[in-house]
Design goal:
With 217 residues, this protein is an alpha/beta fold. It has a single domain (5-210), classed as TIM Barrel. Helix content is 23%, strand content 24%. The chain has helices at 55-64, 83-92, 152-164, 185-195, 205-210; strands spanning 5-15, 25-31, 51-54, 69-73, 96-101, 115-119, 144-149, 173-178, 200-201. It has a nine-stranded mixed beta sheet with strand order 3-1-2-4-5-6-7-8-9. β7, α3 (152-164) and β8 form a beta-alpha-beta unit. The relative contact order is 0.17. The structure holds iron/sulfur cluster (SF4). Iron/sulfur cluster binds at residues 34, 36-38, 41, 43, 74-76, 102.
Length: 217
């Protein structure tokens, strides 16, 4: 079956880097393949290659690190149908499961126990036209909606989206992340404070620990 195997770039333990779980030890399952090309993407190495593994082996390796938290990331995990049953199995095994997704793929089939971290791509990403706004209806207080911002134009776009789609009412956490090396975090904090926006400014913690080349998690 198409869900029996997954193409995997790497499975490793680190700390969660860019969500409300930042700093928590976490096992990452990085899948191969993405159908977007965000201008500031820091994981292009996951666009191709990798190793095809049985889903049972991916599950076993993901559990072997022993962290309570496991994150599916990519690339774009939802491109591979086997990710849905894998996340279910990780939840069944008692893990807290995070899914990092670009926000352009349907999240309706994701196990409700999974914490979805869903991007809304701002214009500076070059992929704003790919946002799948239907996904908003599947977000709950368990989930997080993330904006990566490259400049003031992106910030203003996010501010407009908050109003137009009443995103604060979804209950999901709203994350505003400065694109590393493009937008000064201090500037973003000043804008958020000036506008009293109901967002959490979110830094890519792993880059402050391991340097600018550390991959997104
Ligand atoms: S969705 Fe993620 S993996 Fe794909 S291009 Fe954008 S940042 Fe990179």
């Amino acid at each position: 079956m198409v869900t029996d195997t997954l193409v995997i770039h790497e499975i490793y333990a680190s700390i969660q880097g860019e969500s409300s779980f930042a700093g928590v030890p976490c096992t990452f399952v990085r899948t191969v393949g993405c159908d977007l090309r965000c201008t500031w993407c820091d994981t292009p190495q996951a666009f191709q290659g990798g190793t095809r593994l049985a889903r049972s082996e991916v599950l076993e390796r993901a559990l072997s690190f022993g962290t309570p938290l496991v994150e599916l990331t990519g690339g774009e995990p939802l491109l591979q149908p086997g990710v849905l049953p894998l996340m279910r199995e990780l939840c069944d095994a008692g893990r807290t499961v995070l899914l990092e997704t670009g926000g352009h793929r349907d999240v309706s089939g994701v196990d409700p126990r999974v914490h979805k971290i869903v991007d809304l791509k701002a214009p500076g990403s070059g992929e704003v036209a790919q946002n799948r706004l239907e996904n908003l209806r599947y977000l709950t207080a368990r989930d997080e909606l993330k904006f990566v911002l490259a400049d003031r134009g992106d910030y203003d776009w996010m501010r407009g989206m908050l109003v137009i789609h009443e995103l604060d009412a979804l209950g999901a956490k709203l994350l505003a992340s400065p694109a590393f090396g493009l937008l000064d975090p201090r500037t973003l904090v000043e804008w958020v404070l000036a506008d009293k926006l109901p967002v959490r400014v979110n830094l890519q913690l792993h880059k402050y620990v391991w340097g600018a080349d550390a991959v997104g998690v």
